[in-house]
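Subject: sequence -> C-alpha cells, single chain

Hey, anyone have a minute? Need the predicted structure for the following. Not urgent.
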Amino acid sequence: MDTFSLLFYLFALVLVYAGFRVITARSPVTAALHLVLAFFSASCVWMLLQAEFLSIALVLVYVGAVMVLFLFVVMMLDINIDALRQGFWKHFPAAGVIGALIAVEMAFVLTRGFDLPQARPFPAEVAQVPNTKALGIELYTNYLFPVQIAAVILLVAIVAAIALTLRRRKDSRYQNPSEQVRVKKADRLSIVKVAPHVEVPAADAAKDNGGQA
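Reply:
Had a minute. Here:
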C-alpha cells in the first residue's frame, strides 16, 4: 500500500468516526465539534484528489461559517436534548439498517457512474485548465439551473431559521426599542404628595397614657 492510499483510508476512517459521533453525542456542542472534524477529514480527502478549491471552500465555508451558525442556532433555540433523545437506542437498529441500505445504494450508483477502468482521459486542452476555472465553467454553464435551485433552498433555510428564533416565548425577556425611544419623563417618574405622619414611640405613648390616667 502506497502513501496515498494509506492517507486516504486514514482520513476516511476519521470521517466515518466523526460522522458516527455527530449522531450519537449527548451534547449538541460535542456533536458540532465532531462535525468540524468530519469537515476537515473530507477536506483532506478532497486535497488528496487534487481538488484544491473544493477542499479550501469546505474549510472556509462550512467550518468557518456554517458551523458557527449551527452553534448560534443551538444556543438560541434552547432545545431540550433529553426529550429529543428519548427512544434513541430503541430505534437505533432500524436506523442502522436503513443507513446501511442507503450506503449500499450510494455505492452501487457511484461505482456504476464512475467506471474507472473504462474512463476516458481528458483532452489535452481540458487537462491544462486550472481546477477552479474548470469547476466554475461546469457550475455556471452545464449546471446553472441546479445551482440556482440550491441557492433558493439555502435562502428558504435562512428565512426559516430567522423565523424560528423570532418567535415570542413566555419565559423570555426582551426590549422594544421603539417604546424606549418614545418614553417620556412622566412615564418613568411620578411625584406623589403624601400627608406627613409622625409615629410616637411606644415608651412616650405609655407615659402619655399614664399621665392622662
